[in-house]
Amino acid sequence: MPLKRFYAPEGLALPALFAALLLAGCTHSSSSPEGCVERFWIHPADALSSVELVGSWDSFARPGIALTARSDGWFTAERAVSTGSMQYAFVVDGRWTRDITEPLEEVAKGQPVTRRNVADCHAPQLSLASVRVDSAALRFGVTLVGASDGTPFVALDVRDEGSGKTVSVALDATQRGTIDVALPVPSAPRFAFTVTGTDALGRRASRRSFAWTDGHTDADRIGYQVLPDRFRGPGGSPLSNPTNLAMRAGGTLSGVTAELRRGTFDALAVDTLWLMPLVQNTSNSFDIGDGALGTGYHGYWATSSSQVDANLGTEADVRELLDVAHARGIRVVLDVVPNHVHAEHPYWRDHRADGWFHGDPGACVCGSVACPWETSMERCAFSAYLPDVNWDEPAAADTVTADTVNWLERFPFDGLRIDAVPMMPRGASRAIVARARDSVAQGSRDLLLLGEVFTGPGAYDKLRYYLGPFGLSSTFHFPLFWALRGAFADETGPLSGVTDAVAQGALAWGDSGATLATFAGNHDVSRLASVAERSGADRFALPPFASDARTWSRLRQTFVALYTLPGFPMLYQGDEMGLPGTGDPSSRRVLPDRADLPADALDLERHVQALARLRRCSTALRRGALEVLHASDEALVFGRRDPASNEAALVVLTRMPNAVLHVPLPAAYGGSVRDVLQGTVASLRDELTIPSDAVRTFAIWLPSTSPCTAP
């Protein structure tokens, strides 16, 4: 929670707000006989507006508290509030509006309101900021705010949660405000710690956080999606597809851990694993359409909010997986499902009459005539046995938020992948984000909160809506996903659409600070290989590996684009092998034993491994700005330049050009260069020539002197 509290209406940009507050002055909470005094600020567009403050302290009684107008256009008011949770809103000329400087968005009395969790001003407060590791030290800022009685802090301790060792930080008893702390770089790849401040009366305030010592940013991530039931069996043993593909296959957490130890993910330069849900799911079978039955092997039919699915393993297995991953420098992100539960979940049994859900799920199934997606997304159910959580009910929202973040509090996961984000009000993901950051990673840049905002082509603003200072740290780049598939897999769209999607995305969410996850496949769509093969097989069938050489060329091109474009690539298990599948459950078939792979699949795997190693090596391909040099239906040439390292990479992709192309080259991409994938050496001048017979070709040119060109 912020230690200084300021308020403003929706519609006022945050930079302008904070600049204005520096002029307006700031007010700490103070105490009163009734509680802690809070000051509220608002700057309406019209200085002659009528402005009220209403809140849960008196059931939002109208008229609310009148705010005092200042000469600078700001309105302000003070009120004593009780410690704990409160809701409030500004009423400007009769219109209720939330506070844009606060993260928690809710609804009360059918109106938009803001929730604030008010800290006890009679107790000391502590917060962390800018937690990071550089070559010299673990650094972070600690802001200390003493209790309202003026008692100073006298001690500050940092506890290493791994070793249990505590380091004391020198603290002057008169010290106030923010203290910059620098400690020796931890020896472990991931350092989790708790900072505790103690005042002269022995009262304590603590915060938890963690940092990775490798210095990776989100742009440096290379991810891999794992569906544990379909990955590997106990000890890493290969699995067989069940007769009914929608039933369990027997994959376990120990199977994932075995592949970690074998170096499978190291070979793909992976530093971020996305584990699909591990929570206990139903073992019973339910209708999944087309007259077929399925069970919760995938993790999205929860019957508990806290238990690890016994089919996958135990809590000890989770911890072992995390320990092994972290020791290899691999972060682990857990899939969570706050939108719904299964009908066998106790919450549905115990709270179906308490407003926790949007009624009978069978009465409003998403996409039905009664509940079309366009108008019912936030209240419809995926199926008749998946009750949809009503996030406007405070008790339900608080419980599901706590359940979700509890996985981070119990286990050292490095983030969350939040399912079905647009099927909940934005306040749902913001509540999870706020609690996660506050509870386990205050001030850390290493907590990844990745949202699934499923869209069709375009819809850039929809993704932007969920990002920002109070929002998700990232979402999946669905517009780019569709552009990649259209350009390279099914060849129905222009190659220029790929860089257009990148550029339009940058315009939409560039100010959010987010780096989006890029991908060419996941568990919810037909496999990339089947799209490239143009397979029309039934979704319950197991199509064979592609037999057409053109399919493998399309796959290789897709991955060249994926691993060289901005964002961070997320690979779906088996796509690196060209595993086919035409939809759920075929697209979720088990990962084959490598001994059973055809030569083309092994070649593709080596290709993806080489691309991943190249991206890991090249700062330009991870962090460089995108420079489009040529974009047309049949050819794409772009550069990535990193000003910090002065490194440049040139990427060339063609489909079926019908004429010779002459592409002017900036000097940064010229000179003696090597195509990293083919090993070809060339001298590039001021122009790149692409012949008309360059069918489905690709090249990644780096300076011949670059260490990333080594075999």
Helix content: 10-25%
For this structure, what is the CATH class of one domain?
A: Mainly Beta
| Widest sheet: strand ordering | 25-24-23-22-19-18-27-26
Distance between the termini: 50 Å
Predict the CATH topology of one domain: Immunoglobulin-like
Low-confidence stretches: 1-28
CATH superfamily of one domain: Immunoglobulins
Instruction: State the total count of DSSP E strands.
Output: 35
- Radius of gyration from CA coordinates: 27 Å
In DSSP terms (H or I, runs of 4 or more residues), the helix count works out at: 15
Strand content is: 25-35%
Helix-strand category: alpha+beta
Largest sheet properties: 8 strands, parallel
